[in-house]
Amino acid sequence: MALPKANRLKSRKDFQAVFRGGIRRNGSYLTLRALKPLSSRKPSLDTATQTTQPIDSLSSIRIGISISTKVSKRAVVRNRIKRQITSALYSLLPKLSPGWRLVFIVKPTAAESKCVSPQFLQELEQLLAQAEVFDGNS
After folding, report:
1. Residue 113 CB contacts under 8 Å (≥ 6 apart), including other chains
2. What's the whole-number mean pLDDT along residues 46-66?
3. Which residue from 39, 56, 79, 88 puts its CA 20 to 30 A from 45's CA?
């Protein structure tokens, strides 16, 4: 099950913004890079000169998944892992605070250990809780 289009990070610019300004949390299979919404971040001189984002991009959470050929040379394996992560995220989507931009980076250990969906779900919950992305920080 794919994520809704409104909840996907698509452009290179969006990914780079998360990598530059986001926080990092590590797990055994995944690394989370999370960028707080503009209203939660401390104002700086750079953000004062930039234009603000449209309201719809602030209200919805945006998620991207990065999986390189270092994880597996076979696209079938990479796509299977991506589908498992997406289905786990789909169940967590209503619990997440709006406005966050998240990138999940898959580590090579995910393919080596034959990681399955419940393990991805558990690790996703841990990483999101560490980054305080859940609605109400629970």
Report:
1. 29
2. 62
3. 56
